[in-house]
Inverse folding.
């Protein structure tokens, strides 16, 4: 994983975000092992305490499980992952709509712009569920 | 439980100059702390006081509950901001010296680190470049299992690859009972590795905070905050 | 920890000094072999270019030897002082981070310095003897000592006292330098300037103190001299009468001297001289030791509680 951190937020939060995205996108498959605190700290060149805090946060979100002997793995709870995916997508949509509003397009105009773009990309519009990502 | 480092009311005067004034600082174990400040703010003076190379004009310094002295020197591993070995010594002599005088020195680890750097034991210290000398000293300092590591300007004047090596070494050697204090004025390079920061200005402690707290409350990196706080004109 | 420091100190210094000592001894041996040869060549009338070349080389070797031998004790002291000066410079960041007390550092360095300085003096004496051995140096020295012993001169006590004095004076020199270097940061921003000033003051103080001490300590000697002199004058016939008597017997100078030295008069004089010498040597040694202790305490104070490494 490539690690690049922005200046304006705590690093542990950014680690959480990036691992979360990895889980949602399928880059970190369900049940796969996460690197150890030390390994991840070395890879990202951050403080081990920071990584520890990020892992604890991910655990409290339910995205990661700790096994006493074998370390940490990505959750296998498909429903939870789906729920997080939805929530994240909703956030993106709301941001998209807000961006469109600031450009002067209302929600209906934003939706038709969206349909146009999706049509150009050869995707079917309206009524489909997001594909299951492997 | 005694704090790992307890600096109380420390003032240090050199003749008419006041290097440190009424400094209070407490550090616990298992943290990587940045001692940040512009040149001349008293960082090196504070570090030397903790090591025992200077004695305070007023106030006291205690490490793990003991006043600075022979006993605390066993617990403190110090990387000075200059070369402290006789140039005619060979690298393996330096290793031998550390092994002889420090009980917590791990010879195997030191040899491994030096081998990874491509430095031979029989190389004379004077034949090494400045950057290499600093890496050797860092390898020796980090091969000790000390309670408190004091690194004075470890990344000043080194190339980026060396800087990465230094940060990696610090991360790799981190353990829960030990605390690493990095004194530097180059904050952007080390910020990701720090837990907490101590700002020093003109011999006084300006601020003590965790990196996360600064980023959360001010939405800026410590480096940016530092530049604002210590803007020079 | 002290033993470790001592061991380390000796190992580092041996690398410098042993080769020098070896060179002195070797040169002494070489000269011992070559000088007689050169002498013999000088005696023959034919002086070829080869002969001149050889005597030139031998001459150079002899000069080299004498230069080395006269410089050796000074070189050793200079090296020792420079090492200590460096140890309080950048190297101090290493040494004073070690878990060792100021006393331990000081004792290790003082012991090593003293050993090498005294060894240098011994090596110089030994190599001089060796160099002139082919001229019968050993014989001359041992003969002299034997003769002195036969006249009742207590060689062993005096020799021992002399060695103790040499060691004490060397110790005092070393510690005067060490104390100056230790105090320097408190005197001036410049370590070198501060050391220099401190040394000048310390040297003057030491000399003054030693002189004062000796003038007091030599009183017993003066008392002894006075009483024995009185004794001699009172109890023995005038020295001049004796001289006349022996003169008239017409014996040679050496026999005369021998006979003179075997008289009671002479033996009293000899024991007087040796006792006074012993007392003075002892007093001087004690004086040096006392001053050494003072400088040791000063150094320890400024390397311990008052350490200020720049």
């Amino acid at each position: 994983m490539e690690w690049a951190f922005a200046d304006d937020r705590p690093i542990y939060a950014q680690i959480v975000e990036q691992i979360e995205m990895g889980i949602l996108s399928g880059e970190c498959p369900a049940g796969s092992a996460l690197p150890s605190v030390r390994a991840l700290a070395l890879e990202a060149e951050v403080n081990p305490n920071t990584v520890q805090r990020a892992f604890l946060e991910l655990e409290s979100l339910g995205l990661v499980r700790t096994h006493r002997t074998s370390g940490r793995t990505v959750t296998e709870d498909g429903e939870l992952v789906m729920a997080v995916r939805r929530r994240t997508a909703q956030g993106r949509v709301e941001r998209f709509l807000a961006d469109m509003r600031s450009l002067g397009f209302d929600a209906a105009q934003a939706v038709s712009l969206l349909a146009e773009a999706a049509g150009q990309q050869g995707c079917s519009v309206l009524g489909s569920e997001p594909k299951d990502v492997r | 439980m005694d704090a790992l480092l307890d600096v109380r009311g420390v003032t240090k005067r050199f003749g008419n100059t006041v290097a440190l004034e009424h400094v209070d600082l407490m550090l616990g174990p298992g943290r990587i702390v940045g001692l940040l400040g512009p040149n001349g703010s008293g960082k090196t003076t504070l570090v030397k006081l903790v090591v025992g190379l200077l004695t305070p004009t007023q106030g006291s310094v205690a490490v793990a509950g003991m006043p600075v002295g022979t006993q605390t020197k066993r617990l403190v591993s110090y990387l000075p901001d200059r070369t402290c070995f006789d140039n005619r010594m060979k690298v393996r002599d330096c290793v031998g010296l550390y092994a002889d005088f420090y009980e917590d020195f791990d010879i195997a680890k030191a040899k491994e680190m030096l081998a990874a750097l491509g430095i031979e034991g029989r190389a004379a210290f004077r034949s090494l470049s400045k950057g290499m000398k600093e890496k050797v000293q860092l390898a020796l300092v980090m091969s000790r299992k000390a309670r408190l590591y004091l690194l004075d300007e470890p990344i000043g004047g080194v190339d980026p690859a060396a800087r990465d090596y230094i940060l990696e070494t610090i991360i790799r050697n981190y353990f829960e009972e030990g605390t690493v204090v990095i004194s530097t004025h180059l904050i952007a390079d080390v910020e990701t590795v720090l837990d907490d920061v101590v700002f020093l200005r003109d011999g006084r402690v300006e601020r003590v905070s965790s990196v996360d707290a600064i980023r959360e409350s001010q939405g800026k990196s410590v480096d940016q905050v530092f530049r604002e706080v210590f803007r020079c004109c | 920890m002290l033993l470790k420091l001592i061991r380390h100190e000796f190992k580092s210094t041996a690398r410098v000094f042993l080769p020098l000592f070896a060179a002195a001894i070797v040169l002494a041996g070489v000269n011992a072999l070559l000088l007689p040869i050169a002498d013999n060549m000088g005696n023959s009338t034919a002086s070829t270019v080869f002969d001149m070349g050889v005597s030139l080389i031998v001459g150079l070797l002899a000069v080299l030897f004498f230069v080395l031998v006269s410089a050796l004790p000074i070189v050793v002291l200079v090296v020792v002082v420079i090492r200590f000066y460096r140890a309080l410079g950048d190297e101090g960041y290493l040494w004073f981070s070690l878990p060792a007390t100021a006393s331990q550092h000081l004792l290790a360095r003082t012991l090593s310095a003293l050993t090498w300085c005294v060894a240098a003096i011994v090596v110089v004496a030994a190599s001089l003897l060796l160099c002139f051995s082919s001229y019968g140096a050993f014989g001359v020295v041992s003969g002299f000592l034997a003769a002195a012993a036969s006249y009742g001169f207590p060689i062993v006590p005096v020799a021992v006292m002399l060695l103790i004095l040499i060691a004490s004076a060397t110790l005092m020199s070393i510690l005067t330098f060490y104390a100056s270097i230790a105090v320097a940061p408190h005197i001036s921003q410049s370590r070198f300037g501060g050391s220099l000033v401190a040394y000048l003051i310390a040297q003057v103080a030491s000399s003054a103190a030693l002189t004062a001490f000796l003038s007091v300590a030599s009183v017993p000697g003066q008392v002894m001299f006075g009483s024995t002199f009185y004794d001699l004058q009172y109890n023995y016939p005038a020295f001049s009468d004796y001289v006349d008597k022996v003169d008239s017997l017409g014996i040679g100078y050496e026999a005369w001297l021998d006979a003179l030295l075997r008289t009671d008069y002479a033996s009293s004089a000899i024991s007087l001289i040796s006792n006074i010498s012993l007392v003075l040597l002892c007093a001087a040694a004690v004086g040096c030791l006392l001053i050494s202790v003072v400088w040791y305490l000063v150094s320890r104070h400024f390397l311990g509680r008052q350490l200020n490494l720049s």
Remarks:
- Chains A and C do not touch (no CB pair under 8 Å).
- The mean pLDDT of chain A is 86.
- Chain A has two domains: 11-76, 79-120.
